[in-house]
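User: Quick sanity check before I run a bigger batch. Here is a single chain. Can you write out its predicted 3D structure?
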Amino acid sequence: MRAQFVLSEIGVGLRRNLTMTFAVVISVALSLALFGGALLMREQVSTMKDYWYDKVNVSIFLCNKTDAATAPKCAKGAVTAQQKEQIEADLRKMDIVEDVHHESADEAFKHYKEQYNDTAIASVITPDQMQESFRVKLKDPEKYKVVATAFAGRDGVESVQDQRGILQNLFDLMNGMNIAALCVMGLMLVIALMLIVNTVRVSAFSRRRETGIMRLVGASSFYIQMPFIMEAAFAGLLGGGVACVLLLVGRYFLIDHGIALAEKMQLVQFIGWDAVLAMLPLMLAISLLMPAVAAFVALRKYLKV
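Assistant: Done. Predicted structure follows.
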């Protein structure tokens, strides 16, 4: 009987405040969709870093005859065979180095032609203008500075470059988008909480006579508050369900179909469905608990009779 009464009161409350309930559902859905999207974006950046940082190398570019005339660091002339042997030997002695590959000027020229054969400058570049280099794979890519400190400025070395820098601008952009999404999510969350509190207030005010009678006949505060709390929790859960659908549809159309980023950007390792599905229980739990707690706090004042 008590359960039937509580459920009937929930239905009455939702019907009386249908417009505000709809606003609560939409605001909770948008805020949680942004929240889930921001968390997935952060995981995407982390996945891309793990994938690419494991593949990029530290490049030690050696001086050639052209550099000897134009680059201050190569003022002593092109790298000698002895210097190359010493650099490679020192690299292989380092504990942080996993592998060392020497790329000759001819190999560098071949790779350059493969990548830029259609450009105008490719026709005027000659093999003797290309730099020899050592491609160094580190066990821990974060320790690039150890190699840079050891070899930058050394005789025969023109520069030491960390290829992670090429990707860092992309990661910075994605992190910036992630922060922006979190800020918008925070704003939407505040709006959702305000709507929930106002909806509870209106519902409590419209039924103040019934709650007053229940208080007089000895009903407990928790029993009186329960219908209002469950109304807010139900509306929030609906919003959470919509947010989950938005997240699933977004993953489907952005990556697998529609825009199909997975096909257009095959070098990028996108997060899988398992990451998206793992996010859904958290979003549903927040959508249920957040409105319930907000309603409970609001009711402590507005159900006093």
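The beta strands are 58-62, 97-103, 133-138, 157-162.

User: Great, the batch can go ahead then.
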